[in-house]
Design a protein that fits this description.
The chain is an alpha/beta fold. The protein is 35% helix and 14% strand. The chain has a four-stranded mixed β-sheet with strand order 2-1-3-6, sandwiched between helices. Strands 7-10-9-8 form a four-stranded mixed β-sheet. Strands 4-5 form a two-stranded antiparallel sheet. InterPro entries: Thiolase (IPR002155), Thiolase-like (IPR016039), Thiolase_C_2 (IPR055140). One of its GO terms (molecular function) is acyltransferase activity, transferring groups other than amino-acyl groups.
């Protein structure tokens, strides 16, 4: 994302919140097209908004959830009053100079092709590359341990597509699919089908995290950050201690304990969904069902906005779209809109508590958020 796009996104976020731009005194962001260093200062200089708190996060798909809890913590410590959390989208479609073309780093996903990295020497030459292959390895390992229910995994994608069909901004708005459609789509990396993989798109996303005084001035019902947890364990799948235990287990336990609630008190789950297996394992490790019973849980529940266990009510990244690292912010926005009562046709009858997950790398950087309305 470019500085101009960041400025447009920031102005829309601040306008939507209904507070004065000069109230913003903190910023959290990640990579932008114009600079690889001093990114927060580059942005605040462009926006003309000097801040008391600035941070750059580098946790991939967990950037958004990481930014939200860091903003809340900074406000709680009294460092600032209003933190703009803006996450740029994918940069692949941006023009690049012909005399100095950009390195094709996106080909390698979470792996590093830089000289001297363990991935460049021991993994990339042997095909452990990108995202599809390692996530398929996780899915195969899960299947070996608990059985792989292709129907249940496909149901996740189909139910989320139903949600996208009630969300006009979704990439797949109006394009319904069935479980059979998912299972009939091409295998990308065994056992993952094409319709079980995120849909890349362009864009960005952001939120404004403010203190109680500024929240009272906002035009909308606030969503309070009442709990969070973070766990980062490794980078490469080759160094994961156990493919069947994700960092979400520890992150979710901390978030629920902080909020003083349990999984049974959640009205909405908005889970990072780069692949359907990610959703299934997050349901288990976050405590919504026992490990190994995610498929049964999915089969027994309606995951649509009309159902008994609403999940990714705006469509998730599988059907709303994944704008690069901003895809993680989609889940924050999904939950916040539901709590505010601004989800349109996909609005739940009741949404006072939401669980949001962030996932970076190969199930290796995970964050849990608890967001709640006024209690």
């Amino acid at each position: 994302m470019t500085l101009e796009q960041i400025a447009l996104l920031a102005s829309r976020v601040i306008e939507d919140a209904g507070i004065e731009p000069t109230a913003v005194d903190g910023i959290i962001t990640t990579r932008i097209a114009e600079s690889t260093k001093f990114v927060p200062s580059t942005i605040v200089e462009y926006l003309g908004l000097p801040v008391n708190y600035a941070e750059f996060v580098d946790l991939g798909g967990a950037n958004a959830t990481a930014g939200v809890w860091r903003a809340a913590a900074a406000i709680e410590l009294g460092l600032c009053s209003a933190v703009l959390v803006v996450i740029p989208g994918a940069a692949e479609s941006l023009p690049t100079p012909t005399r100095r073309p950009a390195a094709p780093t996106s080909y390698f996903g979470a792996s590093s092709a830089e000289f001297g990295s363990p991935q460049a020497e021991f993994e990339i030459p042997y095909g452990l590359i990108g995202q599809n292959v390692p996530y398929a390895q996780i899915a195969r390992r899960y299947g070996d341990a608990y059985g792989y229910d292709s129907y249940a995994l496909a149901k996740i994608a189909a139910d989320q597509r139903t949600n996208a069909c009630a969300t006009p901004d979704a990439v797949f708005f109006g394009k319904k699919i069935t479980v059979e459609d998912v299972l009939a789509s091409p295998i990308i990396a065994d056992p993952i089908h094409m319709l079980e993989v995120v849909m890349p798109c362009q864009g960005g996303a952001g939120v404004l995290v403010v203190n109680r005084e500024l929240a009272a001035q906002s035009k909308h019902r606030p969503a309070w950050v009442t709990g969070f947890g973070e766990r980062v364990t490794n980078k490469s799948l080759a160094y994961a201690k156990d493919l069947l235990v994700t960092p979400m287990e520890a992150a979710a336990q901390r978030a629920f304990a902080m909020a003083n609630i349990g999984p049974g008190e959640v009205d909405l789950v908005s889970l990072y969904d780069c692949y359907t297996i990610t959703v299934l394992m997050t349901l288990e490790d976050a405590g919504f069902c026992p490990r190994g019973e995610g498929a049964r849980f999915v089969r027994e529940h309606d995951l649509t906005f009309r159902g008994d266990f609403p999940l990714n009510t705006a469509g998730g990244q599988l059907s709303f779209g994944q704008a690069g690292a901003a895809g993680g912010m989609h889940h924050v926005c999904d939950a916040v809109r539901q709590i505010m009562g601004r989800a349109g046709d996909a609005q739940l009858k009741q949404c006072a508590t939401a669980f949001v997950s962030g996932n970076g790398g190969i199930m290796s950087e995970q964050i849990a958020l608890i967001l709640q309305g006024e209690r």
